[in-house]
Design brief:
By secondary structure, the protein is an alpha/beta fold. Helices cover about 35% and strands about 30% of the residues.
Length: about 300
Amino acid sequence: MSVRISELQKTYGDQKALAGISFEALPGGITGFLGPNGAGKSTTMKILSGFLDQDGGTATVCGFDTRSQAEEVKRRIGYLPEHNPLYKDMYVKEYLGFVAGMHSLDKRKQRVADMVELTGLGREQHKKINALSKGYRQRVGLAQALIHDPEVLILDEPTSGLDPNQLADIRELIRGLGQEKTVILSTHIMQEVEALCDKVVIINQGEIVADGALDSLKQQAGKSGIDISIEFAEEFPLDERFKDKAVMRFSQGNSKRNWTLTVNPEKDLRGDLFRFAVENDLTLLGLSAETREVEDIFRYLTHK
């Protein structure tokens, strides 16, 4: 049920979209596949799903090669692309029945009913797709990706257009699917990564710049510095007094009462700052070290 990519390459004219990337996604977890626009995410997912052929390297899905065993791969993949292609003149239930027929499924009516219930389409199943909101169209797309019970799910921006209630439902559904299937989730919403993903792969300019568990990536991003926030009751030119410390960058808030210091990750200055406040009769209102979130990691690794 695993997905394995090794030295995958793809070039469009003079532009190298994939420069020999390698990573692995395993069952029983959700792999977040992140990157800025034009980084190579969509190209990778199209190769995995059989819509595009690579120029070099290999990609396998459940042990089947995407190039030489494309039909076997397609039987085992459920794919929800970012721009969800649907037959909008069809009714929801009709469309899902059509998709079930394309997969030559047995007990199609029961399978359609199961997908309608699973994705929360019960009240919308007798409507035409073009009458649905964007959020419900996403649910239809997810239902078609799941209808043949694939071993691998590739989801590109699956929660786009969902309201907060729908978002919670779909997150719960994806989280449950990740316990039994291999799920690759591509999104620009960093909260989705925090909420759903066990592992993160970040691609930038056709190269993998990070591959690992979230905690280890946060440690890696921390090498760029730890942010310490401090607030005094009085204004004080902190940047003039701490220039000789392990401070990599000063950032002043809306006044000289609020400061953020980016410091060497091996040097925790909170104790020094506290003693500094006491020695200078400053009233300390706040002092904290801020951990780096996924968005910080993403920005650091794709802009350095």
